[in-house]
Design brief:
The complex is a heterotrimer of chains A (211), B (414) and C (289). With 211 residues, chain A is of the alpha/beta class. Chain A is built from six helices and 13 strands. In chain A, a hairpin with a 2-residue loop joins strand 11 and strand 12. The two termini of chain A are 17 Å apart. Chain B is built from 17 helices and seven strands. In chain B, the strands form three sheets. In chain B, strands 1-2-3 form a three-stranded parallel beta sheet. A two-stranded parallel ribbon of chain B has the order 4-5. The longest helix of chain B has 18 residues. In chain B, 50% of the residues are buried. In chain C, strands 1-4-5-6-7-10-11-12 form an eight-stranded parallel barrel, surrounded by four helices. In chain C, helix 1 runs parallel beside helix 3. The two termini of chain C are 25 Å apart. The chains are: A alpha/beta (211), B mainly alpha (414), C alpha/beta (289). Chains in contact: A-C, B-C. Chains B and C meet through helix 1, helix 2, helix 8 and helix 10 of B and strand 2, strand 3, helix 1 and helix 11 of C.
């Protein structure tokens, strides 16, 4: 295991940074919670967590100039980044949560409200098993049937080529993870998904291509 | 600080305690169940459980009973083997702080009941390393005893596929009312970690400072979840099925099986902890320093609840015994290879500032936190005594089992 | 498929986990961080920590305690007790809470629900409601005043959704710690009145209570407090037995009890002698993640 890996959790005052860092530390890695440009530049892997509303999240990102700083590191320098929940939704072009808001636009797509069919209850909250649709560094340590914890009211609508896993919610499919090159996103919370979540982090951190 | 109006525990009990609106603690409340429950019904529930575990293939034991040369061991084996006619395997963890009486009691137990026994004696050097480490980190000389006696039965259960372990009294129920008897609580690794191990698992002791490696602690490692679940290991506590009264039970054992008693340094109870020269001595003295009370309070409170002692008689006994100095400290420090000065230095790090302060002569002085209640309040929750006295017998000392003319059944080490 | 959630509630009094019986008798179970560590190890789906003294005594939530327990908590953690302001919610989420549970605040100032939801998302807010039967009528119970209040229950629940709660936790006061099973009738009357998920709590005795609940109602999640403390791997065992009956249970620990029979008290029975004998020399390699 590469314990020397420099993992930085981007802190924009709206993530559950503490939970994410607990999970990664539990695996024996060192991890830093920071928004300092220098720390982000030195990171091997950046994690963008997120709990909360999209509007507040993107506002906090922009006011801290993180869109520019991370944009340079991720798009130009190709540093691997993993967005979690709202952190994943931020990667899209836009979100319609409480009005229309512009996202980072790193992965083509739009965040839309989940329209419940039949008697489905929204938010989509709880443990759902995902179907892996494309090979991804995220799932290297996992078998086929895995449950992850979801808790969201809006979902990432995008083209099939960006989707690496989906789950069934009633009769509809929900994007569970996305990937474009070095940019990864998961709608669920691996830091709150017990063994499956820890295995995801382990697999991702051991196998992601570093630059 | 809040004290119970019936017994002498306060809310800082290390097993935790809740004092209700009438000022009575959860331990006393749950103890009331002993006079309310239908114990015949409970006993038939026990019978039902035991029946399911009788071995039919005749290739294995029915259950495991953890024993020592003292505390309730005779009673548990008596109930399981002679009353319920089970075929138990006895297991014992050698605490290495053995008294002669304890060694004799254990030998006599095997002979009188005709049982097989397995013993775990961990190599003494590792035990010493562990004891130095747990003294430093937890202020405990007893971690290895508690860890050993709670892990060895489980290891044997997993290894030999004997799923049922039978324990005596659950301390959480009997002392602080952690559970109702009706909850039929069973053995968990969680309780062991929190209370027996004081939060430190064997693996947590591996440390270069203490020079402890995996080899030193491997005998104390708990079997993993999967091994336990495959066999379906369960540990049940007899005090959920039998009205527990350790004094009366021991007295029956004295008569039936010649159990041997021993006078104790820091308590009047001559039955419970006769196998270990540190338990009611150095270990209990440390408890007094760490928690502000000793085993004497546990014994007094037990007898108050069993209606043999009044609150006031109990207080006298507590005042008499809790301040007694240990008699076997030199023996302990010699064994561990440290000076008495360093013993005191280490233990002082764990001295509880709520109960202790330095006086002007720089000596440690006990701070009595207890403020006597109004007599009416105490009387309102008082239990009426059912026995006028609370005397513990002393049996004559038996001859050593190491005597020349006899077979030596167990060695005593050097 | 979305699974039914089995939630463990830890009731906290004076900083320790207690068993609560009828909202008035309490037994001391132990430290919250150790309880969380083991519930997580046993494969619980979610943990709720509720401090029953904080609001009554006007105390803030115990952030230090939440920080400590969340170190070993790799499942969602909801926290209730003493929450009054947006800053409280922020401090809790930064200490490791994933959701907050508010009860008293909901009828005192429901607009707080909206305020919290706008900042942290609806999914972060669980509105908790204590229900009590009075002359065979179900009423809302105010635990701070120890009496029922005159609100129409259904209107009240709809209002909670309207203000922005993400989930509703229904707590059945009459059944607290009495092991009578869940109140199926009332649950069925209320489940479809709102379109957000409902969690029910109060009355779970053993795995049969959950089977009964999930077979007879369409409820999404159920919580239990006391009985998970009583036996080894209680959560794993409960979920194993449940999953033998229902497909909508997540069983993802590397160990389980689905091949065990149970006794009348819903504790495991011994496997057959020959099954045990065959295991004698089989070695198990412990799992490393």
């Amino acid at each position: 295991m590469n314990r020397k890996l420099n993992i930085v959790i981007a802190d924009y005052n709206l993530g559950n940074t503490y939970s994410v860092s607990n999970a990664i530390k539990h695996l024996g890695y060192n991890v830093r919670i920071s928004l300092e440009e220098s720390n982000l530049k030195n990171a091997d892997v950046i994690i963008l967590p997120g709990v909360g509303a999209f509007e507040e999240a993107i506002k906090n990102i922009k006011s801290r100039n993180l869109d520019k700083i991370l944009g340079e590191l991720v798009l130009v320098k190709s540093k691997p980044i993993l967005g979690i929940c709202v952190g994943m939704q931020l990667l899209a072009n836009s979100s319609e949560e409480n009005g229309l808001h512009e996202g980072l636009g790193w992965i083509e797509g739009h965040v839309k409200q989940i329209i419940p069919l039949n008697n489905d209850k929204v938010p989509h909250v709880g443990w759902n098993n995902i179907k892996i649709t494309k090979e991804s560094k995220l799932y290297t340590n996992l078998g086929q049937d895995n449950h992850f914890y979801f808790d969201h009211k809006y979902h990432f609508v995008t083209e099939e080529k960006f989707i690496s896993a989906q789950c069934e919610f009633g009769n509809q499919l929900i994007t569970s993870s996305v990937q474009y090159r070095n940019i990864f996103g998961v709608q669920f919370h691996p830091e709150k998904s017990q063994r499956a979540g820890l295995k995801l982090f382990r697999g991702f951190l051991e196998n992601v291509e570093l630059i | 600080m809040k004290y119970c109006k019936r017994c002498h525990y306060n809310e800082l009990h290390p097993l935790n305690l809740i004092i209700d609106e009438e000022g009575v603690c959860s331990g006393c409340r749950v103890h009331e169940e002993k006079d309310e429950l239908n114990w015949e019904e409970k006993s038939s529930q026990l019978n039902e459980i035991l029946n399911q575990y009788r071995n039919i293939s005749e290739n294995n034991y029915d259950c495991i009973i953890p024993v020592s040369g003292a505390r309730d061991s005779y009673f548990i084996v008596h109930i399981i083997k002679n009353v319920f006619k089970m075929n138990p395997l006895l297991v014992t963890y050698n605490k290495q702080f053995n008294t002669d009486a304890g060694v004799r009691n254990l030998a006599n137990l095997r002979i009188k009941f005709g049982c097989d026994i397995m013993t775990l004696t961990v190599n003494p050097e590792s035990v010493k390393k562990i004891t130095r480490a747990t003294m430093r980190r937890l202020g405990s000389i007893y971690w290895h005893c508690l860890a050993g006696q709670t892990v060895f039965p489980v290891q044997i259960a997993v290894k030999f596929k004997i799923p049922l372990i039978i324990w005596g009294a659950h301390q959480g129920i009997d002392q602080v009312g952690m559970f109702s008897h009706l909850d039929q609580v069973e053995m968990t690794r969680k309780y062991r970690k929190e209370h027996d191990l004081m939060g430190l698992e064997a693996e947590d002791l591996i440390d270069s400072f203490d020079e402890i490696t995996y080899d030193d602690i491997k005998s104390f490692v708990y079997p993993d979840n999967e091994s336990i679940a495959r066999v379906g290991v369960r540990g049940i506590y007899l005090n959920n099925f039998i009205r527990w009264d350790t004094k009366a039970q021991h007295e029956e054992m004295l008569k039936l099986y010649d159990y041997e008693t021993l006078e104790q340094t820091r308590t009047f109870d001559t039955y419970n902890d006769v196998d270990c020269y540190n338990y009611s001595d150095v270990h209990d003295y440390i408890k007094f320093i760490k928690h502000g009370y000793g085993k004497i309070s546990d014994h007094v409170n037990r007898e108050i609840r069993l209606k043999r002692l009044s609150r006031e008689q109990g207080l006298e006994l507590i005042n008499k015994y809790s301040i007694k100095k240990p008699e076997n400290l030199a023996k302990f420090t010699n064994w561990l290879g440290i000076t008495e000065n360093s013993f005191h230095y280490i233990i002082d790090q764990h001295r509880n500032p709520i109960y202790w302060r330095r006086n002007e002569k720089w000596e440690w002085e006990y701070i009595n936190q207890f403020i006597e209640f109004d007599q009416n309040e105490v009387d309102a929750v008082r239990l009426n005594l059912v026995e006028k006295t609370c005397n513990f017998n002393i049996t004559p000392v038996k001859k050593s089992s190491d005597h020349k003319s006899q077979y030596i059944i167990i060695g005593k080490g050097k | 498929m979305l699974k039914k959630r089995i939630i463990a509630t830890l009731v906290i009094k004076n900083g320790i986990v207690v068993q609560s019986i009828g909202f008035k008798k309490y037994l001391p179970v132990g430290k919250p961080d150790i309880a969380v560590e083991f519930l997580n190890d046993w494969g619980i789906d979610e943990i709720a920590i509720i401090d029953i003294d904080a609001t009554k005594k006007g105390l803030k939530p115990d952030y230090k305690l939440i920080e400590k327990v969340s170190k070993k908590c790799f499942v969602p953690l909801s926290v209730g007790g003493g929450i009054q302001t947006l800053d409280d919610v922020r401090a809790l989420t930064q200490s490791g809470a994933d959701k907050v549970i508010i009860n008293n605040l909901c009828f005192k100032s429901p607009d707080k629900i909206t305020e919290f939801a706008l900042a942290f998302g609806n999914q972060c807010i669980i509105a908790s409601v204590d229900l009590k039967r009075e002359q065979n009528e179900i009423k809302i119970f105010d635990y701070t005043l120890n009496k029922t209040i005159d609100y129409n229950v259904i209107d009240y629940l709809k209002n909670l959704e309207h203000y922005g709660a993400g989930e509703i936790l229904l707590n059945f006061v009459d059944r607290d710690g009495l092991y009578k099973g869940f109140d199926i009738d009332v649950i069925n009357q209320l489940t479809n009145q709102v379109s957000i998920p409902i969690i029910v709590q109060g009355g779970a005795k053993n795995v049969n209570s959950f089977i009964d609940l999930f077979e007879k109602t369409s409820i999404e999640a159920a919580a239990a407090a006391n009985f998970f403390h009583f036996s080894e791997h209680s959560v794993t065992f409960t979920k194993s037995i449940l999953s033998n009956k229902l497909s909508s249970i997540r069983t993802e620990t590397n160990f389980g009890y689905s091949d065990f029979k149970t006794d009348s008290n819903l504790r495991i029975l011994k496997k057959d002698d020959d099954v045990l004998e065959k295991m004698l020399y089989v070695k198990i390699e412990p799992e490393i993640i």
